[in-house]
Amino acid sequence: MSIRLRQICLVARELAPVIEDFKEILRLEVCFVDKGVAVFGLENSLMPVGSNFVEVVAPIQENAAAGRYLKRRNGDGGYMVICQCDSHEVQQARKARAAAMNIRVAWEHQSKTFHGMQLHPADTGGAFFEIDWDAKGEPEGNWEPAGGDGWHKAVHTDVVTRYEAVELQSSDPRGLAERWSSIAEIPLREDSRGRLEMPLDNASIRFVEANDGRGEGLGGVDIVVNDRQHLMEAAERRGRRVSNDQILLCGTRFYLV
Predict the structure, then answer these.
(1) Between vectors from CA 145 to CA 226 and to CA 224, what angle results, nearest 5°?
(2) From CA 48, how far away is CA 164, in angstroms rounded?
(3) Are strands 189-190 and 196-199 parallel, antiparallel or unpaired?
C-alpha cells in the first residue's frame, strides 16, 4: 500500500493577492486553473511545488462552503490535505474503512482514469482528507486535478523544492492523529521533537496543539528551501516574514527546512 501527499489546498478571501505572494516569495508559477470548481462557488489556481501542488481557492458566491470555512477559522488558511494512492483497491479499502468509522464522503468524482474522494472534515477533524487514485500511476507525473501532465513546464525549484510535512492543529492532537491514522491504516510515530506524525511515502502529517486562537485546522507546512536569502527578502517586502524560519502565506505557517 502506498499513499503520498500530492497537493494541499488553501482557502482565501481573495485569490489574486495570495497568488502574487506565492509567485514573488516562493517563485512559483500557476500551471492550471480549474473552471470546474465554479460549481462549488469557487475560483482557483494550482502551482507545482516540485512534483506536488499548492492549490488556492476563493469563494465567488455568498453561499459557498469555503466562505463559511473562512468565517469559522477567522480568515485565510488551510483547507484540504490531498493524497494519491497507488491503486484503486487501496482507495476503496480506505473508503470502506471510513464508512466503518461513520465518516462521510463529502464529494466523489470518477472518470475512466481518475477517482477523487473527499472525506468530510466534520468527521475526519482537522481538514478535508482527500484520497485520490489516478490510473496512470505516476506519483511524480500525470495528475488530473492539475490538468494532466502539462504542469511540468511550470515547475521552478530555485527557491523551494518540495513539501516535507503538513501540520494539523487541534485541542486534542492525539485524538485527531489516531482518527487519521485509523482511516489511512498507517501507524503513528513521534518526530524528533516528540510530536505525533503519520508518515506518508514522501512526507508526513504532523499533529500539534492548536494555540493560535484559530481552532482546529490545517495550520502549517514544512517546505524545503534552496534560496533562503531570496525567500526572506521577498517575504519581508510583502509583509509575510514571521521569523528566520517561518513565513505566513494565505493564513498558513510555512516552516523553512
Answers:
(1) 15
(2) 14
(3) antiparallel
Q: Determine the length of the chain.
A: 257
Closest CA to 116 of 34, 186, 196: 34
pTM score over 0.70: yes
* Nearest Cα to Cα of residue 64 among 79, 54, 51: 79
**Cβ(252)–Cβ(10) under 8 Å?**
yes
Closest CA to 28 of 9, 52, 10: 52
Place of cell 503520498: 4
Label the pairing between strands 114-119 and 77-85. unpaired
Domain 3-149 fold: 2,3-Dihydroxybiphenyl 1,2-Dioxygenase; domain 1 (3.10.180)
Average pLDDT across each block of 10 residues of the chain; the chain has 257 residues. List them in order.
95 98 98 94 97 97 87 94 96 98 96 95 96 95 95 97 98 98 98 96 98 96 98 98 98 98
Strands 52-59 and 252-256: unpaired
Distance, CA of 184 to chain centre: 16
The pLDDT assigned to 1 comes to 74
Ranges in the chain annotated CATH 3.10.180.10? 3-149, 160-256
Which CATH architecture describes the domain 160-256? Roll (3.10)
Q: What is the dihedral of CA 90, 96, 102, 103, to 10 degrees?
A: 30
